[in-house]
Amino acid sequence: MERKIKIQIVGQFLLSMLFILSATLTFGQQRTFMAGAAKTVITPYLGGGIVGNFGTPPEAKNIHDELHARSLVLDDGDSKLAFIICDNIGLARKVCDAAKKEINARTGIPTANILIAGTHTHSATSAEGEGPKRRGWNPQEGLDRYQDFLALRIADAVDIAIYRMEPAKIGWSSVNIPEHVFNRRWHMKDLVVNPFGEKEPVRFNPGIGNPDIVKPAGPTDPEVSFLSVQAVDGRAIALLANYSLHYIGGVPKHDISADYFAVFANRMQELLTKNNPEAPFVGIMTNGTSGDINNVNVQGAPPKDAPYQKMKFVANDVAQKVYSSLQNVKYQPWLKLQAKQAEQTLMVRKPTDKQLALAKQIIAMPEDAKPINHPLERTYAQRITQLQNEWPTEISVLLQTFRIGDLQIAAIPFETFAESGLALKSQYPKNKTFTISFANGSYGYLPTPEQHKLGGYETWLGTNRVEINASRKVFSTITNLFSQMN
Question: What spatial distance separates the first Cα and last Cα of the chain, rounded to whole Å?
Fold first, then answer.
């Protein structure tokens, strides 16, 4: 009798556990994945300087195409993630922090679950401060007029996306498009002089047809990764893509333009909503690890493109190839969403006494005086003097990681080199992984230690501001954040 009672108790326990497991699986099957997307206009006021090139920024006199903040919000029932990509060369961290605070207050989305990044168009005014403030250190100052407007419009983009949220399904894939990406750093036959009077073996943008080039100083990443979101009835809601291509350009100097990033987004909308062109689809192109990558084939023929012609060609070609690859994507009705972030402390590079002495000499010279070493020496004399006088000895930058099912996204606030992005991808052969640069701040270039040894524009003090081993530390923190996800 006692044995029979024990068997009954065990049997009842097993039946109870089976019921709980069944209920849990049923609940999991019934969970609804939600998504929404939106965009808001963030076009700046005319009259500001269009930044992105050397010399005095030309005045913004014409709006060729509106700039936008493009948002995608995902909800697995437990967690929400928000991605907002802005048509700007780079955003100051305080703008991102202000926008996240506003988003959190309005929606309750934790700030750690919000990614804000710039596309790196070179045809917009500054969101990092006006004039010398753009390269200075002023995180405690309040936002200027455009920065304040931008932060609120970023929050609006998330608000609208949440208003539009509906049951959705999600999938991702990638396609290799190598023909548009070129490493812009080249080994030269002879050493070249930099703005500090130092000789180095590598030159960036050596010029089309330059007979002194030897070989590229690094690789390219040809992969276009993309995340596609559909409503349950198959309507396209959003597509977020990632390509390691700096920008295209070919924009008249007084024009405001979102560059190829927006052309791609618009073309994806045409392709994915051709049966319903009024559908509120949002296309998004993010900038990958393009710190040493551009669209210039220095071994090819000189371009003869009219303004905007080349960016349209590249964007439309990339969009068409992504669209073709989309046809094989398998969508899932529910995926777990995760986000992690960490503050990374980095030492700030400071000029040597020799560099400061040379900078003082150059700044004291008449502006029309013949350069001592390099055409950009005055620019860099001013930059390193500002770096010495304004920047602290160390800074803290925000790093983020996101997981959408098995898809991994890293967010880094630098112009990251392609080899760093490739190394991160190779670290996770079983997971689709990509990096969004210019995220949650903008602190200049992030060369690897090996690239620092070669020199070149991206490594020059004033272009790069943080310690030589910074990329190693960033990589270590990103991989540690990914390891905390399951």
Answer: 47
CB 341 within 8 A of CB 400: yes
What does the alpha-carbon distance between residue 219 and residue 209 come to, in Å, rounded to a whole number?
A: 20
Strand 50-51 relative to strand 236-243, pairing: unpaired
Type and span of the H or E element at 170:
strand 166-176
List, in order, residues 6 or more apart from 178 with CB less than 8 Å away. Answer: 220, 222
Statement: the pTM of the whole predicted model exceeds 0.90? yes
130 exposure class (CB count in 10 Å sphere: 0-12, 13-18, 19+): middle
Which string of b and e fits 26-53 if b means at least 16 CB within 10 Å? Answer: eeeeeeebbbbbbbbebbbeeebebbbe
> Which is nearest to 337 in space by CA: 236, 281, 409?
409
Q: How confident is the model over 369-396, as pLDDT tens digits? A: 999 999 999 999 999 999 999 999 999 9
In a 10 Å sphere around its CB, with 0-12 CB exposed, 13-18 middle and 19+ buried, how is residue 13 labelled? exposed
Residue 32 identity (one-letter amino acid): T
Would you call 384 helix, strand, or coil by DSSP? helix
**Amino acid occupying residue 470:** A
Q: Which residues of 275-304 are buried (b: 16+ CB within 10 A; e: fewer)?
A: eeeeebbbbbbbbbbbbbbbbbebeeeeee
Could you identify the residue written with the tokens 């195409």? 65
Domain boundaries defined on the chain: 34-183+215-346+392-483, 351-390
Lowest-confidence range among 55-59, 104-108, 143-147, 360-364? 55-59
* CA count, 13 A, side-chain hemisphere, 85: 25
For residue range 86-119, what is the model confidence (pLDDT) as tens digits? 999 999 999 999 999 999 999 999 999 999 999 9
Among residues 129, 123, 119, the alpha carbon closest in space to that of 60 is found at 123
